[in-house]
């Protein structure tokens, strides 16, 4: 029960933080991109620069080893995919490609779809990333 409460608490904090960060990033603020990456690192309990420089399979391995991977995968997968979209919009194809591959690896390994926003982030997602 305590672990479940802990996971719910960190997911709640992540949703709040990543929502603010993605709003800034989608508005063209570079700091919003960095803040989104920091939120992912905090959720994974890893340094964000280290975590997000990992090859996709290595990132998945770190998530498995943390023991939290199953609990947070859909949030990580979502955030990485949306970061990829924003990096692509800003012309940073290399970073967009890495984030996309990381999102795909997390999705495949933990059974989540990068295109589907977690329930707590659906309203934000519809605002920032409307379906074409």
Task: Name a few traits of the molecule.
132 residues, mainly alpha
Taking all Cα atoms into account, the compactness measure Rg is: 14 Å
Shape: globular
Counting DSSP H or I runs of 4 or more residues, the number of helices is: 7
Percent range of helical residues: over 70%
Instruction: Name the helix and strand elements from N-terminus to C-terminus, one letter apiece.
Output: HHHHHHH
Assign the structural class, choosing from mainly alpha, mainly beta, alpha/beta, alpha+beta, or little secondary structure: mainly alpha
Poorly predicted parts: none
Number of strands: 0
Largest sheet: none
Which range does the strand content fall in?
Answer: under 5%
Overall average pLDDT: 94
Span between termini: 42 Å
Question: Could you explain the architecture of this structure?
Answer:
- This protein is mainly α and 132 residues long.
- α1 runs antiparallel to α2, α1 runs parallel beside α5 and α5 runs antiparallel to α6.
- The longest helix has 25 residues.
Offer a quick outline of the entry.
The protein is mainly alpha-helical. It has helices at residues 2-26, 30-44, 48-51, 56-66, 69-89, 93-110, 122-128.
Which SSEs are present, and which pair or pack?
Layout: H1 2-26, H2 30-44, H3 48-51, H4 56-66, H5 69-89, H6 93-110, H7 122-128
Helix pairs in contact: 1-2, 1-5, 2-5, 4-6, 5-6
